[in-house]
User: Fold this.
Amino acid sequence: MDANSTPMSIRKLPNELERVIFLDAAISRPANIPALILVAWRVKHWVEPLLYHIVCLSRIGAPMEGYPRFTIEVMLRAIQRKPASFFHDNVQHLCLNSGSTAQQAAILTACTGVTNLCIPNHSLESHLDAIDAMAPCRLMFLHDLSVSFGHSMFRNITHLSVEDVGNTRDEGSWAADLHLIPNLTHFSFYLDNISRELGPPIAACPRLQCIVMHCYNNLEMMHVEEIEQAWLSNDIRFVMIRWDRHDFFGDWQRGAATGQDFWVLAEASIAAKRASDLHPRMPKFSSLRLTAARVSDCVPTAMTGKQ
Assistant:
């Protein structure tokens, strides 16, 4: 009997081996999951949850290579069709940069298991209850200072990134409130204006291990000398990272998928500065340029603490 005449029941792979093959295919290229779902019901059951592991809803930029494009409409239809537990269990990383306030609320309410939340151009004031229930560990958002850092939604935050702060309330005041976040170890921020009032209260936050200031264009880099003199130039935890705004979502997706994001670059710089303590002439101030290749090169350094 040749191979072509072998009964299907004999040629069929064991279910567990078949499952491993499809899961490997889905993990290696999530963009192919919609096609894999069509193979069979059992395959759909195995791989569909992986499709929603990282959800980036943004009108800006393209998805990272190998990852699917989501839209608000597609996500809302899926939420209506599936049980609430599906999105709680499977959506771990969520970037929400499109849709109305009501649409955003529906998505945040469904995705209560998210640990890494990015709402870069929106205030949190309209979504306090949903994010409080979610209790993410990583949060990136537009901080209009209407929400106190003492709010319970920040209780699990270890990595916090805020955008465009310092123009609506006394800057020293919000910086001093960082200590209200009980588990905060990493803090990054972007400011339109340089202020000498921010450095001391940020430095005084006892649990911070990494402090990053973002600069998005060459004009802002003209202030490097002022930052070096007036800010945290003697604080080994302080790093300034330069990047283009169009790199923002790529960096977030890369971090969600691989753990390789701007935090890795900053941690590697800090590790190098700590290693240089025996060499006083090495400046403590760091000004770095963010690129995907540079972040990737820093991964072993950040993990081992060696340069």
